[in-house]
Amino acid sequence: SVDAKDSLLDLVKVQKESYKSFTPGSYDNEGLESVFHSVFPVNDPLHGATIKFISCRIDDLKYDESECIKRVITFSARVIASIRLVVVQDGIPLDEYRSIKESGDLSKLASIVKFIEEQEVHLCELPMMTDKGTFIINVVEKKVPFIPDKFRGVRLPFDLMDVKGNVLLKANVRVTSRLAKKLYDDGLKEYLVPFDSICGLFLAEDSIDDVSSTKILSA
């Protein structure tokens, strides 16, 4: 027989994998990188220059866990970002620069760009998770509580409305199994979901066509 412990969810592993997916380098434009992409590019007030975020990475650890405890410092690593500065010729709006760039006309693009410089900069310090799933903040080792009850159900980032525009469920309200059953009993059988709201998410189980039994998407 299988040991009961083997069938239990490894909560430490869940948290470690979750934090790993947040750190740079795990997925393109996910986690921390998506945060930077949401605030870049940064333009100057006169629209003559723009700073674009390219990518970021975690620098090598300067001290290990035991050394951080001895020095009474946070167990962390530097976040190094690659950014690109583009300065256009005077009188050329950035919108025109972007339009020419999208068109692929390199000769015209070169004529309006004054200079382009790309370099790596130190953006911030990111606390690193230990193998035990904890953080060392100023010599104190802290655990991140994992409360499964808070994660039951899903939260929709948009209002759930019927064909008449009546709101059936407001955005960010947790949809539990009981609430889902109530919506089903009230006549809700299917709902079209905006693509932007599910882009980047993962399926919990395979999606199967009810008629042909063909697998549409894999979990």
Automatic annotation (TrEMBL):
Name under which the protein is recorded: Uncharacterized protein
Organism of derivation: Dictyocaulus viviparus (Bovine lungworm)
Lineage summary: Eukaryota, Metazoa, Ecdysozoa, Nematoda, Chromadorea
